[in-house]
């Protein structure tokens, strides 16, 4: 499909630079079939059914943004995917100034050696020394805010908490599963009181989620790989929800993509521990999920393609036009949408 079919005009003032406070005070646009309703995140218990299950991503964002130098040249590094105890696949700003074998000096005495360039447009980086890389990142790294926020303000201490969900447990993501940022303990109590269950899985979100689609046609776009896991017990419980008539509502596109990656043609969710490059565009047949709670996405992005696949292109173009007209806040720190297809 032509990528320009997924374009729309978004005024820059619609981009949220801070989250709602408290988190569950955010607005939420509900799209059920083709009907659009303006609600709030706190309305979620009344919008779902007893027996439904929300599925969260429990990945934890690491301080994956690093600023350093190769000689006199400034170099910016964003970790993308772990390759080993000390080795990472990374994206590099000013990459032309870095050659394989070069030493890069970061803050607090942290050093890394540049490796070979890769087919995904980045390169490998090996951190020096014997300290665990996690400790090095705590010293030298920053929270990797999305470019559309980082270009408008610097990262600060508030982001250490704001850009981490209440479910964050498994360290390894370089971007937050932002739909879950809206949840609070009180909202989870209200959902449990309404008979709505929840489960967690793990998908370590990579920096590729921020990359624009440069191809003119979706068939020419290559997704970056991300590692995910669903254990056998969780898969069994998720299958039981659907067997008893409940719906699986993915919280975030990361949860949805992992669920769909782990589900067979008969609709059974299998244990999964592997990389996924799943790319969902209109025409895709959903096997695992019955709905999605997600934030508002960029024009021409793979995530807007995904929600268009779930709800229909015309429906989502109309929904986003409504969201813009009604002043919804977009992207990682923005408002939410609850998408419930008619089927």
Automatic annotation (TrEMBL):
This is S-adenosylmethionine:tRNA ribosyltransferase-isomerase. GO terms for molecular function: S-adenosylmethionine:tRNA ribosyltransferase-isomerase activity. It comes from the Bacteria. Keywords: Cytoplasm, Glycosyltransferase, Queuosine biosynthesis, S-adenosyl-L-methionine, Transferase. Its EC number is 2.4.99.17. It is found in: Cytoplasm. InterPro entries: QueA, QueA_dom1, QueA_dom2, QueA_sf. PANTHER family: S-ADENOSYLMETHIONINE:TRNA RIBOSYLTRANSFERASE-ISOMERASE (PTHR30307). Belongs to the QueA family. The gene is queA.
């Amino acid at each position: 499909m032509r990528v320009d079919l997924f374009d729309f005009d978004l005024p820059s003032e619609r981009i949220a630079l801070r989250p709602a406070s408290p988190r569950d005070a955010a607005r939420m646009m509900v799209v059920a079939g083709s009907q659009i309703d303006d609600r709030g995140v706190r309305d979620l218990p009344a919008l779902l059914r007893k027996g439904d299950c929300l599925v969260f991503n429990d990945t934890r964002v690491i301080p994956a943004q690093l600023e350093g130098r190769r000689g006199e040249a400034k170099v910016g590094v964003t970790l993308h995917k772990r390759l080993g105890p000390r080795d990472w696949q990374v994206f590099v700003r000013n990459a032309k100034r870095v050659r394989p074998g070069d030493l890069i000096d970061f803050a607090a005495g942290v050093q890394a050696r540049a490796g070979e360039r890769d087919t995904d447009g980045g390169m490998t980086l090996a951190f020096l020394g014997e300290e665990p890389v996690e400790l090095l990142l705590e010293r030298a790294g920053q929270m990797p805010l999305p470019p559309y926020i980082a270009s408008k303000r610097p990262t600060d201490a508030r982001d250490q908490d704001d850009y981490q969900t209440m479910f964050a447990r498994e360290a390894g993501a370089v971007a937050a599963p932002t739909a879950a940022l809206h949840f609070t303990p009180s909202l989870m109590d209200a959902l449990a009181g309404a008979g709505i269950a929840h489960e967690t899985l793990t998908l370590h979100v990579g920096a590729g989620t921020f990359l624009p689609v440069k191809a003119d046609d979706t068939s020419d776009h290559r997704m970056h790989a991300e590692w995910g896991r669903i254990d056998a017990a969780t898969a069994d419980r998720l299958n039981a929800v659907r067997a008893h008539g409940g719906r699986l509502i993915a919280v975030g596109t990361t949860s949805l993509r992992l669920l769909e990656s782990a589900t067979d043609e008969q609709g059974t969710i299998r244990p999964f521990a592997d990389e996924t490059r799943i790319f969902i565009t209109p025409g895709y047949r959903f096997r695992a999920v019955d709905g999605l709670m997600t934030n508002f996405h960029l024009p021409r992005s793979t995530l807007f393609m995904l929600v268009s696949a779930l709800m229909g292109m015309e429906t989502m173009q109309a929904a986003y036009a409504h969201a813009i007209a009604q002043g919804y806040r977009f992207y990682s720190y923005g408002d939410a949408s609850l998408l419930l297809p008619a089927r």
